[in-house]
């Protein structure tokens, strides 16, 4: 999301194909908050919170204070003399109580932007009081000295001046919720965040992925404070006493490696455009065996496919070794084949879904379970569960078992080989 912010600032600064105000706009990563957006003399502290779907939405003010980071935002905002704006960016949604806080913040922001006094009535006053009380109760270590002094003096509810301070804080707070989670952002980000920039630059959407990867890589580096600084490794001259160094030098020493300028973002965008293939993900080598092609079509994991190929080879080696000294090995193998064909049929019937819905991974797990559960006497004593699963894989290679709807697997393999030139 910091990378998305960088692209948003870059988009706003482009005028006639050139950057305007690039020297006055930057993002400082992992300093005060997850990142700080700075434009001229204005700044916005941003707290970013990824929340897994299993944990649901933010439903209470306390959750927003703790898990959402609003208590820390309030502390930083106060420490910076109430000057910056504040923003929470999260993948989670907001339930009713949290929505009431968001509505109160929006109403206060309208009044502030209009230059009016931050006095609103009704339900928003109630929400402000609830936020102040939650701060006093659950975030004592992050409160200003005046709050703590009042509490030590026996005050059990926030004073009017503290509720007023909460009102001022909410008037500069915005909440962006419902952002794409980790599972989807890799696929969604190029279209959501890069295509608007590409349209302005006159480039087509095919550059979205490489540009996104280039900008994202830049922010990953800065988030780790690993970026280059203006002075590099040069020492500070001994003649420069504290207070004599310029502000630029002091900032460079403190957070220089964490700063992303618009020029940096522009460089990353140009790199993505110029080295498109270098930023594209390396595609997986297509499978050119029947087992591989069929399991791939069924969306089985790469590890499962590799294991299936190995187990089939081990199963074949088992019967070659046994057949060299056992005249009845062929009969035993045919009996095992019939049993394995039966459990494969039962497993397919248990997991197969309508056309278009993948079920290959479910079939793989079902085959393993049924191979493990085969009763004694159905197979030779030294044919363990893995070898029995290898026998099922051998049936896959003979096109007796499928991991998806049937298709012309030989034609598919031939097409892949032709594309690879093998």
What does this structure look like?
With 422 residues, the chain is an alpha/beta fold. It folds into 2 domains: 2-233 and 242-279, no CATH class; 290-420, no CATH class. It is built from 18 helices and 8 strands. The chain has a 6-stranded mixed beta sheet, sandwiched between helices.
Keywords:
2 domains, two-stranded antiparallel sheet, 8 strands, 422 residues, six-stranded mixed β-sheet, 18 helices, alpha/beta
Q: What letter string, H or E per element, gives the SSE order?
A: HEEEEEHHEHHHHEHHHEHHHHHHHH
What Rg do the Cα atoms give?
Answer: 31 Å
- How many strand elements? 8
Q: Find the structural class using helix and strand composition.
A: alpha/beta
Helical coverage, percent range:
55-70%
Largest sheet: 6 strands, mixed
CA-based shape = elongated
Set down the secondary structure blueprint.
Blueprint lengths: L1 H12 E2 L2 E2 L5 E7 L1 E7 L2 E8 L11 H6 L3 H10 L5 E6 L5 H18 L9 H16 L6 H8 L7 H12 L1 E4 L5 H20 L6 H16 L23 H9 L3 E3 H13 L1 H4 L10 H8 L4 H22 L5 H23 L8 H14 L11 H13 L11 H12 L2
Parallel strand pairs: 5-6, 6-7
Antiparallel strand pairs: 1-2, 3-4, 3-8, 4-5
Helix pairs in contact: 1-8, 1-9, 4-5, 4-7, 5-7, 8-9, 9-11, 13-14, 14-17, 15-16, 15-17, 16-17
Short summary:
The protein has 422 residues and is α/β, with parallel strands linked by helices.
């Amino acid at each position: 999301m910091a990378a998305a912010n960088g692209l948003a600032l870059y988009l706003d600064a482009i005028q006639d194909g050139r950057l305007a105000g690039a020297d006055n706009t930057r993002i400082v990563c992992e300093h005060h908050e997850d990142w700080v957006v700075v434009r001229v003399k204005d700044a916005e502290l941003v707290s970013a919170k990824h929340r897994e779907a299993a944990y649901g939405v933010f439903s209470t003010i306390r959750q927003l204070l703790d898990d959402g980071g609003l208590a820390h935002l309030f502390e930083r905002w106060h420490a910076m003399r109430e000057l910056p704006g504040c923003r929470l960016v999260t993948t989670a949604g907001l339930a009713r109580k949290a929505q009431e806080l968001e509505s109160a913040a929006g109403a206060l922001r309208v009044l502030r932007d209009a230059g009016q006094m931050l006095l609103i009535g009704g339900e928003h006053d109630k929400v402000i009081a609830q936020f102040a009380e939650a701060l006093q109760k659950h975030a004592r270590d992050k409160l200003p000295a005046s709050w703590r002094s009042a509490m030590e003096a026996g005050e059990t509810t926030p004073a009017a001046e503290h509720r007023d301070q909460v009102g001022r804080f909410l008037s500069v707070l915005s909440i962006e919720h419902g952002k794409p989670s980790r599972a989807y952002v890799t696929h969604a980000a190029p279209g959501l965040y890069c295509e608007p920039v590409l349209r302005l630059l006159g480039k087509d959407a095919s550059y979205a992925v490489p540009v996104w990867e280039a900008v994202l890589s830049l922010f990953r580096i800065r988030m780790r404070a690993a970026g280059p600084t203006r002075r590099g490794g040069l020492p500070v001259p001994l003649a420069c006493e504290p207070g004599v160094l310029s502000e630029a030098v002091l900032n460079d020493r403190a957070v220089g490696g964490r700063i992303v300028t618009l020029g940096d973002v522009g460089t990353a965008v140009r790199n993505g455009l110029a080295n498109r293939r270098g930023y594209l993900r390396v595609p997986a080598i297509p499978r050119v065996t029947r087992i591989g092609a069929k399991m791939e079509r069924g969306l089985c994991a790469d590890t499962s496919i590799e294991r299936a190929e190995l187990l089939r080879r081990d199963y074949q080696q088992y019967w070659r070794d046994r057949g060299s000294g056992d005249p009845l090995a062929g009969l035993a193998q045919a009996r095992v084949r019939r049993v394995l064909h039966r459990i494969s049929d039962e497993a397919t019937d248990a997991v197969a879904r309508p056309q278009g819905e993948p079920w290959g991974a479910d079939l793989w797990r079902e085959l393993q379970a049924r191979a493990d559960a085969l009763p004694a006497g159905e197979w030779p004593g030294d044919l363990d569960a893995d070898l029995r699963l290898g026998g099922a894989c051998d049936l896959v290679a003979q096109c007796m078992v499928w991991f998806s709807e049937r298709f012309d697997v030989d034609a598919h393999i031939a097409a892949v080989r032709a594309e690879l030139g093998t």
